[in-house]
Amino acid sequence: MDERSERAEREKDRDKEKSTSSRGAKLEDFRLMCKLGEGTFSEVLKIKHKKNGQVYAMKRFRKHFNSADEVENLREIQALRRLNPHPHVVELDDVIFDPKHGILSLNFELMDCNLYELVSRKHASITETKAKSYMLQICRALEYMHGKGIFHRDIKPENILVKDTTVKLADFGSCRGIHSKQPYTEYIATRWYRSPECLLCDGIYTFKMDMWGAGCVLFEIVSKVPLFPGSNELDQLHRIHAVVGTPAGKVLKKMLGSKASSMKYNFPFKEGTGIRPLIPHVSAECLDLINQLLAYDPDERITSREALRHPYLRDAVYEAPLDRTRSSLRSAGKAPLAKKGSKTELDASQPGQPPSNSIYIKPPKPEKQPSLPSIDPHAADDPSKAKHAHHPQQQHHTDPDKGTLQGVPEAIPHKRPDDIPSTTST
């Protein structure tokens, strides 16, 4: 090999070590402000661009990525590129991959909080007008997403982000293509929001599971408590049956399909209390929408499009803020995308990346570091070591640009169900 060829090879190797970004950004272009939260598979940091001052929520994966192709095949990125921009889907601003260390970071728009945090505030009152507005936006997001051939598979308050009057669907780490091959992962979605078919049918379920989750979310918005807080899968089914009743034999047989003869479910008969005694203060239209979203038989369950036409949402009002969507995703060709018209992992039946936990949460006390901390690329994704803080205490802190963080407590252990497995999902 001559000297010119050797020089070209060295330059090629150096290029491989540089961070790749859809907007040319590098990790060192950002300043760490604080940690917003962490889950089993990733952590979220509040960061600020050193030059333009723009603030983002950076989701950084613990998994080591070996190549840009592996990053491209990440289901979450594929879904967000297919869905962005949309007023009710969280905006992915940039994808930053550091091939030298195998670190992948996703920069998102920064939202105020998630819906669970908003609902669980002691003195927060959510009026019927506001509840309708939130549900209208959630159903718009679901209709758009399902129309694009994607279902979320983890609809819950923690995955719905809020800023001012706007709500946006987030955390697409569990999503799948609607037309991808079944069976899917059995153990998907967070237990309290898991539909009956996900609990019973060994990975045979559809996008209708998202509608069940939406029904649970609407109930939680108007009641401020979860509807089915099961302690395990069997308890989850018992709680569902205690409210909506045990399914008719023909419904159960249809749901189980060919496995009906080999699987024995001896559920004690329960007529079910119904939803009304649990939320006597809501309107008849609200109650009817929840009942249609929580139909036991997924074939009888209302779709997002039908929900948008429901009388409860007919007079719902949403005042959209000024369009803050940045130009990065209006010209998505700048990002490393799959070729137009090509079949992505969302549409295939291959196993994908493990789903991420809900991690848009208030900050535990960060370590004082002048720049973004590094992650051990070979660290094990041990769920037992993951910290969660979905029950944050009131926190008071100053902007790190103006002083040091003060009075920020450590994360409180996660008391809501966290059933996402550490294995890859399908």
Care to describe what's here?
- Keywords: ATP-binding, Kinase, Nucleotide-binding, Nucleus, Serine/threonine-protein kinase, Transferase.
- ATP binds at residue 59.
- It is found in: Nucleus.
- The chain is α+β, with helices and mostly antiparallel strands.
- The chain folds into 2 domains: 17-111 and 326-385, Phosphorylase Kinase, domain 1; 113-314, Transferase(Phosphotransferase) domain 1 (Transferase(Phosphotransferase), domain 1, Orthogonal Bundle), CATH 1.10.510.10.
- The chain has helices at residues 3-17, 68-72, 75-83, 115-120, 128-147, 196-200, 208-223, 233-244, 249-256, 284-293, 304-308, 311-314; strands at 20-21, 30-38, 42-49, 55-61, 92-98, 103-108, 113-114, 150-151, 160-163, 166-169, 176-177.
- A 6-stranded antiparallel β-sheet has the order 1-5-6-4-3-2, covered by helices on one side.
- It is globular and about 80 Å long.
- The model is unreliable at 324-341, 349-414 and 419-426 (pLDDT under 50).
